[in-house]
Design goal:
single chain, alpha/beta, Cytidine Deaminase, domain 2, 6-stranded mixed β-sheet, 4-stranded mixed β-sheet, globular
Length: about 260
């Protein structure tokens, strides 16, 4: 596992309240990551920390199938391993992902209910979790995070942080595969908005309960409501704001109560 990369100090010229000043500011490291697998290769851009789960998750969710359309059924995630390669073509980070035909263990849909107050409390815990590099958001303002929450134990299993919100989901899916955990057995907490593309990736991985601190767009709502009308079990909650003590439920499968 790589050491957490520290935000880079940078000398800038800032205009604020009518005054120019020279100050030191910080920007997040973002570096190229070459990912190879049996069928090809792809270049990702990511925060250069703990890259193995990111590479595995990206291959599992985006490279092994062409079924990436909206509303596609969850994929049975495979197991896999990640091998670090020597720097190639000027790329410092290079990995080869090997996947098996053996699917990762399948769990269950998150069962039971949580009160709306408990959901808000979990969001507060999620946003307050200590990451690999403290104060990433506070110092750079550009990081997203996502986490796996296990309902029957009431514990967060894994936190992922990255510049790209899709990278966060790749990291969690890769980690879940490495640790034989079925995403369908967990709830997905995210700091980012739930858009059509994020929803599609989350559903491909198997998550059926997605809780966001941010906003949501119309397509995920329509897809989830349609799926539930056909006997599905998708929960979508957004605008989960601990400071305001509120959460908005856009689709529910009986998991969130008063």
């Amino acid at each position: 596992m790589q050491q957490a990369s520290i935000p880079h100090p940078t000398s800038i010229c800032r205009w604020k309240e009518g005054i120019w000043e020279h100050i030191d500011d910080v920007v997040s490291p973002e570096e190229a990551v070459l990912v190879r697998w049996q069928g090809g290769e792809r270049m990702l851009w990511a925060w250069p920390h703990d890259l193995e789960p990111l590479c595995l998750g990206h291959v599992l969710l985006d490279c092994l199938t062409r079924e990436t359309r909206l509303g596609a059924a969850p994929l049975p995630l495979r197991t896999g391993t990640v091998q670090a390669l020597a720097s190639q073509a000027g790329c410092q980070h290079a990995f080869f992902v090997h996947t098996t035909e053996e699917p990762a263990p399948r769990g269950y849909l998150p069962q039971g209910c949580m009160s709306a107050a408990a959901v808000v409390q979990r969001m507060d815990e999620f946003m307050g979790m200590a990451g690999a590099c403290p104060h990433l958001w506070e110092s750079t303002g550009c990081f997203h995070r996502a986490a796996l929450f296990e309902p029957h134990t009431g514990a967060f299993l894994c936190l992922a942080e990255d510049i790209g919100r899709h990278n966060c989901l790749d990291r969690l899916a890769g980690w879940a595969s490495m640790h034989a955990i079925d995403p369908a057995a967990t709830m997905l907490f995210v700091s980012a908005r739930i858009t059509a593309s994020l929803y599609a990736k989350a559903r491909r991985a198997g998550w059926s309960a997605i809780i966001s601190r941010s906003a949501i767009t119309s397509t995920p709502v329509q897809l989830a409501q349609t799926e539930n009308a056909q006997g599905g079990a998708v929960t979508l909650a957004a605008f989960c704001r601990p400071r305001e003590q509120r959460v908005s439920i856009f689709a529910d499968a009986g998991r969130i109560r008063a």
